[in-house]
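Write out this protein's structure.
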Amino acid sequence: MEKCGFGWQNRVLDAALTADVQAPLLPVSNLRGQEGAPSLGWRVPGIVAGVTLSFTAMATFRAFSLHRTNLSASAVWQVRVLQGSRTVWQGTGGPVALQQALLVTPAPIGGDSVRIDIQDPANPDGWIDIPLLYAGTLWQPARNFSTESTQGRTLGQDVVTSLAGTEFVEPRWYQRKLSIAHQSLGDADVIMVDQILRVAAMGQNILFLPDPSASPDQLAARALFGRLSANDITNPFGVADRHGTTLDFTERL
């Protein structure tokens, strides 16, 4: 088991994005948005999608993830990291769960472009929606988060109750939440957390992986990509190099 990972440097946001195919009003440039709605993402007519991320200088990658997608459980996606025309690393992404899929490399990989190919022949919609995409590094604190951390959810429901007490529920949305308690951040960790929070304060989504070394199905089931906020930094152990805080994540819908 690895220490938790935070993906906060999303290179999708500064890459030159080139899609093989895109819907006229839902171009690949929408991947720079943060909202996560299919009506604001990248849509591909058909069941095959491909996108290339190009950079003016070498970039480093450890995690790739798709979020809020309409991909079916049988979808297959692959990632290649290139230096010039040479492929330096390639891998097959994990299965889709909770409308997301992830791929974590064993170690950081450097490249000046990334190619992502997706095939989903069984997609019942007949098109592919990718509202949110992460491609970038993972930061891991020196020590892992506390077992006092919790997970929850916020339900969007319209409920009408009859005179007899019968409840009629109209479901709207289901949003996952994580409250990550950390009681052993070092001085260097606190500096990094502050940098991540400054990025999150601008509305940018942050990727959280409880265990980057988990199996592909567990990565998809437990990862969260969304907004981040935090409580005050505390010093529960006096002058020791140990600080505490609680990081609150809410899934972007």
